[in-house]
């Protein structure tokens, strides 16, 4: 959503202007939809290769660099061809997938679609998410995990308990692709505070400083090439 750019957040979630997509957004959607179809028996293993090839051929946007596009295409095929998909998902007993959740955090209304809620052979009751980026680490991991902590709110309401673990699956990683993080109630409370504080800052903010101007003295790649508001940002 343009982390650090309140203007893009305001456009997307207050004005409901989602702007335009990009190659990586389309790629992530294709991966999610392929998984969902497999789980619902709407797609079978012998159809996966053609499904992905056709899907990527019809992308409205191309990768920023040809070599990058080739790498991404090879990695998604590899995930389904080399046994990674079967090995990982054989451990899950699926309870729900991509179901809409609408819930409150303080006076903030939140909507989301958890990729997967399941019982895992090793990690117990989990909320899992598929990410086609590189594996998150450090501050980026802590920041992005807040999404799964938010999903734990409606999941607790439905199932009567919080998850044992929050799980990320990174299909483009070589080697280990599945990473589990123990659920901590303190981090959920900090996430709630962050949401309330962030929305308050956005609603009160008047001096917008968009991320696309400069980040550490350099033009920001995401904001200038991938941001969904990149073509209609009045501050750029």
How are the elements arranged and paired?
Layout lengths: L5 H9 L8 H17 L8 H10 L8 H16 L2 H6 L2 E5 L4 E5 L2 E5 L3 E5 L3 E7 L7 H22 L5 E5 L8 E5 L2 H20 L16 H6 L10
Helix pairs in contact: 2-3, 3-4, 6-7
Keywords: ATP-binding, DNA damage, DNA repair, DNA-binding, Helicase, Hydrolase, Nucleotide-binding
Protein name: PD-(D/E)XK nuclease family protein
Pfam families: PDDEXK_1 (PF12705)
Overall pLDDT metric = 89
Main beta sheet strand tally, sense and closure: 5 strands, mixed
**Helix share, percent:** 40-55%
Q: What general form does the structure show?
A: globular
Provide the gyration radius in Å.
Answer: 19 Å
Give the helix tally.
8
Question: Numbering strands along the chain, what is their spatial order in the largest sheet?
Answer: 1-4-5-6-7
Through-space gap between termini: 16 Å
Pick out the low-confidence regions: none
How much of the sequence is in beta strands?
A: 15-25%
Order of helices and strands: HHHHHEEEEEHEEHH
Secondary-structure-based class equals alpha+beta
Number of strands: 7
GO biological process, one term: DNA repair
Protein name: PD-(D/E)XK nuclease family protein
GO molecular function: ATP binding; DNA binding; helicase activity; hydrolase activity
Domain PD-(D/E)XK endonuclease-like: 5-208
Structure description:
This protein has 236 residues and is an alpha+beta fold. The strands form two sheets. A five-stranded mixed beta sheet has the order 1-4-5-6-7. The protein has a two-stranded antiparallel ribbon with strand order 2-3. The protein is built from eight helices and seven strands. The protein has helices at residues 6-14, 23-39, 48-57, 66-81, 84-89, 138-159, 185-204, 221-226; strands at residues 92-96, 101-105, 108-112, 116-120, 124-130, 165-169, 178-182.
């Amino acid at each position: 959503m343009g982390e650090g750019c309140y203007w893009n957040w305001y456009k997307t979630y207050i004005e409901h202007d989602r702007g335009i997509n990009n190659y990586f957004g389309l790629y992530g959607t294709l991966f999610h939809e392929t998984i969902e179809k497999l789980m619902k028996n709407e797609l079978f293993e012998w159809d996966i290769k053609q499904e992905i090839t056709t899907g990527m051929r019809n992308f409205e946007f191309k990768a920023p660099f040809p070599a990058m596009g080739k790498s991404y295409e090879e990695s998604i095929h590899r995930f389904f061809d080399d046994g990674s998909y079967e090995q990982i998902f054989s451990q899950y007993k699926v309870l729900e997938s991509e179901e809409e959740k609408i819930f409150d955090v303080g006076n903030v209304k939140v909507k989301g679609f958890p990729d997967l809620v399941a019982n895992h052979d090793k990690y117990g009751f989990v909320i899992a998410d598929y990410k086609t980026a590189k594996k998150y680490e450090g501050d980026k991991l802590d920041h992005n995990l807040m999404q799964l902590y938010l999903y734990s709110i409606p999941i607790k309401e439905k199932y009567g308990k919080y998850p044992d673990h929050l799980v990320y699956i990174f299909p483009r990683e070589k080697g280990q692709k599945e990473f589990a993080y123990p659920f901590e109630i303190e981090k959920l409370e900090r996430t709630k505070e962050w949401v309330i504080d962030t929305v308050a800052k956005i609603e009160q903010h008047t001096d917008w400083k968009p991320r696309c101007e400069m980040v550490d003295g350099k033009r920001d790649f995401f904001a200038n090439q991938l941001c969904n508001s990149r073509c209609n940002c009045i501050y750029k």
